[in-house]
Specification:
Blueprint lengths: L68 E5 L2 E4 H8 L11 H24 L6 H14 L4 H10 L4 H23 L6 H13 L7 E10 L6 H19 L4 H8 L10 E5 L6 H6 L8 E6 L3 E11 L7 E12 L7 H16 L5 H8 L10 E5 L6 H8 L10 E3 L2 E14 L2 H31 L2 E3 L5
Antiparallel strand pairs: 1-2, 1-11, 3-4, 3-6, 5-6, 7-8, 7-10, 9-10
Helix pairs in contact: 1-2, 2-5, 5-13, 6-13
Length: 467
């Protein structure tokens, strides 16, 4: 990535913390944090694999119980209605709990969260209006809803807009206080990193390791003549020679392969050898990482293979897929609405695709971030560098392809992927990766210890049994 890229584009540094159960926390805007283990209660999944759906509150369909205070935590009340709202978000596995047990689980979760929010207040932690607006906009975009549609959905469930924003602010504060308090307790020593890397390197065996193969296919019709077969073989052999001479395999696959996976450079994914065709697995068994082989004949035609990675069960990756992209960013505000920004970027996309304008020229003239001077060029990016919504959209694009306008917490983007490449991890990057893995392993214990300490310091008064 270039040094002059807008720093806000980077997603917040995190050890991988995640929101615990909380009322109305739909579609978190920050990187999730690991939840407190609560039997029978969990937040609905909001992963990037599919748009998160706003949960239907059971309270919107049943008679609401009378509201009253059920507990007080350091002078902060918890109401019966809050407990019922959280219980309504329990996942289906909570069905094994009776209603009373479910309500008590929800109450204990809210007590823990209220105590933790007290730590955030004492630390002077706040959420600005701008940050809250970005989080709410990101939630709407992830649910594929306009802001008006989301307000209407909330109203149908009996939730006011201010209640919803208050709960999102609550979740951001919980995330931040956990990151600050828990990550500071996790120490990873250099000798632990070195030991982990030694263990990782010893875990790779050619016979048992997972493999990651990229391929390109020159198809041969089912009833091809001898001349057609010979031409296909000659073409595949020529591509093999180009790859052996140092040509970018991903570009060759994207340009010449006739397989459906050509858009991502022919990459087939990291998997065990028995999950690959035996033709492929046998061909790369003795191949060095980064080497190519072929042409191999299958029923589909001739294949050229490249071994991208060989990794044991406990081994770290030795290479990563980097993406070179550029974008145009418009920030809604003032007279520019989000819908107007979308329409403007859609117009830019049509101009570029029809040859009426160049991407870099439009970026220089219109993009509202630090990359504008470079024609929107964001440089080479490692996985995990961009915010999740941007990275997910970028991953769907083939080299040269321009996506539809994307809404992120920073504004509305028009993204083009220019290139992809497989890059080896430097020793420093391997050390950083190992350190992160070790932090993740230590997180659960550190979080539970901190959670118990916070709960132990809090004054908790139980008043009524939730109903």
């Amino acid at each position: 990535m270039t040094d002059n890229r807008m720093h806000a584009f980077l997603k917040p540094v995190s050890v991988g913390l995640c929101f615990t159960l909380a009322t109305l926390a739909w579609g978190q805007a920050l990187k999730p944090v690991k939840p407190k283990a609560a039997s029978g209660l969990s937040m609905p999944s909001t992963g990037s694999e599919a748009p998160a759906k706003l949960p239907e509150l059971a309270l919107a369909q049943t008679q609401k119980p009378l509201d009253f205070i059920v507990a007080v935590v350091d002078n902060e009340p918890i109401t019966n209605l809050e407990v019922n709202r959280l219980a309504a978000l329990a996942d289906p596995s909570a069905a094994k709990l009776n209603r009373n047990a479910l309500l008590l689980e929800a109450l204990e979760t809210l007590i823990d969260e209220t105590a933790q929010l007290g730590v955030a207040r004492l630390g002077g932690m706040q959420v600005s209006i701008e940050e809250l607006d970005q989080a709410v906009a990101s939630t709407a975009q992830r649910n594929q809803l306009s802001m008006d549609d989301m307000k209407q959905r909330l109203q149908q469930q009996g939730i006011s807009w201010e209640q919803y924003r208050s709960q999102i602010r609550r979740q951001i504060l919980l995330q931040r206080v956990r990151e600050r308090e828990v990550t500071g307790r996790i120490k990873v020593q250099d000798f632990e990193v070195e030991a982990f890397l030694r263990e990782s390197s010893q875990a790779t065996s050619p016979n048992s390791a997972d493999i990651h193969i990229a391929h390109l296919l020159i198809a041969v019709p089912e009833k091809a003549s001898n001349d057609e077969v010979a031409k296909a073989f000659t073409k595949a052999e020529d591509l093999l020679k180009q790859a052996q001479a140092g040509a970018d395999f991903g570009k060759l696959a994207a340009q010449y392969s006739q397989a459906p996976d050509r858009s991502n450079g022919g990459q087939l994914g990291l998997r065990s050898p028995d999950r690959y065709p035996s033709l492929f697995a046998d061909a790369v068994k003795t191949l060095d990482v980064g080497a190519v082989t072929g042409p191999l004949r299958s029923g589909a035609g001739f294949h050229v293979l490249k071994l991208l990675e060989r990794r044991g069960a406990n081994a770290l990756p030795t290479s990563i897929t980097q993406t070179h992209a550029r974008h145009i960013l418009l920030r809604p505000g003032g007279k520019l609405s989000q819908d107007a920004a979308r329409a403007q970027l859609t117009s830019y996309k049509k101009q570029i695709e029809t040859g009426l304008a160049k991407f870099e020229d439009l970026a220089r003239a219109n993009s509202q971030d630090g990359s504008a001077a470079q024609g929107g060029d964001l440089g080479w990016a490692n996985p995990g560098v961009m915010v999740p919504e941007f990275e997910a959209a970028m991953a769907q694009l083939a080299p040269g392809q321009i996506g539809d306008p994307l809404v992120s917490r920073f504004g509305v983007h028009l993204i083009q992927v220019m290139e992809r490449r497989q890059a080896p991890l430097s020793l420093r990057e391997q050390q950083d990766l190992a350190r992160n893995v070790l932090r993740e392993r230590k997180f659960d214990e550190a979080y539970k210890n901190w959670e118990r300490e916070v709960r132990g310091r809090a004054f908790v008064e139980y008043r009524e049994t939730p109903q």
